Amino acid sequence: MSLAKENVKSISDRDPKAERTLKRNIDLKILSKSLRFLQSKYSATPFVTNDGKKTQKFNIEHLRPEDLKFSNPKSRLVFDNVMRIKNETKKQVSRELSYVLLGTSESQLRDPFFITKNAVDLLAYDQDAERASYLCRISQKEHAVVGMNTIMEWHFEKKDQKAGIKCFHERSKFGIPSDPYTFLKLFDGVAKTTPWGASSRGLCEKMLEIFKSNRAIFSSQGDQFTTSVFNACLSVLVKNFEDRQALAWEFFDELSEKEELELSRIYPDARTFTILLQGIKKYTECKKEEVTEDKKLTTDERIVRLLDLEAGHVKTATVIFDKVLNAATPPKPATDEMLNRKNIRKWNKSKINIDFPLVSTFIASMCGRDTHYAYAERALGILRQVSPDVDKILKYVAPPRESTLQSASDFSFPAEPVFKKQVDLKLEKAVRNAKNMELSFAESVKEVLPSRVVSGLDEIDNFNPEVRKARGSGSGRFETHREPLIDLKRESPTTTEGKPSDKKQKQKNMNEFDCSINKFMLNQVFDSLLNLGRFDAFVKAFYYSLIKWGGARMYSEDLQKCNILGNFLSTVRMRPHSIGSVSSIMDGATLEAFMFKVGERGRSRGFTNTNVAVQVFRILACKEYHHDSIPLTRDHIDKMCSLLIKDLHYYNDYNKKRVFNYGTFIEYDQMVEFLHNLVNFVEVHEQYMETFKVAKPHGSFYGFLYKAIKTLELSKWKDSAESTLYLNKLIVKCGILYHQPKHAFPEVDQKNLSSTIEVYARQLLRILGSSPEFKTELKLLKEPLKEFLGTREEHNRENHSKLLQKIYDRIAVDSDPNVKKEETIQKLRRDLSSSSSSRNTTTVTTTTTNIASAAAPQHSIA
């Protein structure tokens, strides 16, 4: 064998191709030798195969040398039979045969790198751990440590917790030692494969026993690594909800020194407290769900129970974060330099660097879906203290009377008054009717009121104080200037050398590092504004963020055409257009969340604010304004379609609560609002297809249009000719561009939509010809509509598209004939303004306006 290697070496110096040929010949000789051994030793023993249905024999005499390569399926079959025979006869397998079936060699089994690499290859080929585990067992034990770690980690990645834990215990049985990373991967794997609330006491006790009995092993890696292992174990314990997560809290308290074990103290870091905060958040959510599903509770009792859980969550999270702030605060400078040096050295061992996950997880205790406004006010106060970017957003969207207040202590962002009054009355009634309930986190029912809870917490005016930070552990000196204790900005890269494309990417990275906000905190701002009943501020904040971090390329002259919330967009300071979006702050998920919130909080008194979402889509779909911004996807389009369909359900449900009626019941004004949104969305879809080079609409889009139009068709229509004409024009304009000739129906949805559009086109032509009042429009539309409704088999696709575009352009829907008097508009405004207290948000002036054309009338006015 050594002679062959020498031949390989000598030939490789002259001819690499000859080297590869010789190596293949050597491998073939080894495979042939192993095959002869296999056939001679096991010729009398039947080999079997199982395809999952039945077991049958196979003849090893028919095998070829190549069949024994470890990557060949037959090699695995041979391995299984050889191991079966070994277990039955208790005789060891030939080492040479094992090496061939595992794809390794004697020398490789002494190299940790090759052992791990071979184990990874076997796991990938087999999709189980049989051969990989056997490989580690026959290797030199001290070199198989990493390979066994890899196998254990593979089990956890496959969500097989039982196999992962079994793999950990088996290594000691086979004499394979553990290293510090073994325990980190074990605890981390168990935590990731355990659902919240499903961590049993038995599992937790097992993990605790492993942690305590092996602490000396991973402590040898230093304090930071020991803390990482502690955090991984804590992640398992917080998923046990027994006795309010008592096991996790007891484990956390054991951070103090264990003198009897001569083990140093474990110092918690930001991750430790993030785990605790996340744990109590999940615990509270679980208990809230139990209360919500408890049918024995009255409505008032359920409200009080939920308030009690929220109060406990906020109080506990505040206590935890107070510990964080104390650990993060540097010692006060003294006149004695030696004392300063001692204090700084001691502080550096236990200090906590507060990061984004820790801050956002803490704030999550005070903002979420339908959180009380008192908690939302506090969340916004903390957010603007720790993030200058949040402060800028709030000052921008604040009402005029508040936006002039500049100092941190003076500036506030309270709940909308009418909304606040409505919530207070509801909670006071619940507390009054459930005053004798036993609570978990308060002594009396009145103490669970959020206003009481917040008043008992520390003021947030100095939540992020300015301190003099230490220069280093050995200098004994402090910085001369003061800095905020919590600074979420990271050091930004300064070099911009390299190719132009590299410079652009580095410029984007620099802007990302220069921000004190991420996507989670931004969504917390949005949620808090909605929980204050300020839908208008929420919309402003989103548009502001879209332009500042979402890469929306917009110009002042275009913004003047947009009447979104009183043209507030025209005052947004533009970012340089070359920078593009900052994905860590705004991405596709942020857009999806925005659409969901508009649908959930933007509906009131029978009308919607879906036009706000349509306008956002127009900005992102238009080639002129989309510059390295959030890319629209088909999933976004589908969610927008779903939002519009849910609007139809909302109209129907709202009307049926007022007037009992069979079938679909959508009023004229609602139809007009919906159809204007639909017309604008169809335009947006056309722009989306052009900008993102989508060849043709997806079948689901045809199905959406057909479903929307058929739903309206079943609804209540006004009898006047003008009203019927206007609705017909809107419907035809919605679907005309997606009509297909009769001979070109590729899908059922397209056929249904095209047939429906033809029906409304005939009706439109008939109405236009029924009255001299429509003479002007009849002149414009008569010729193209007749051509459209005639025989079109001879029309090619290009001519047909031109005809559809002509009809679309000539249908004018800018004004509703039923909206004529200013008094009607003013009355509508008053009615909708007074409706803000009937939902969890106020309505907002959001007149949908096409950036490239005039606006259509809307009914969503504040």
From TrEMBL:
Residue span of region Disordered: 471-508, 822-862
Compositional bias per record (Low complexity), positions renumbered to this chain: 833-856
Entries under InterPro entries matching the protein: TPR-like_helical_dom_sf
Ranges annotated as biased composition (Basic and acidic residues): 478-492, 822-832
Protein name as annotated: Uncharacterized protein
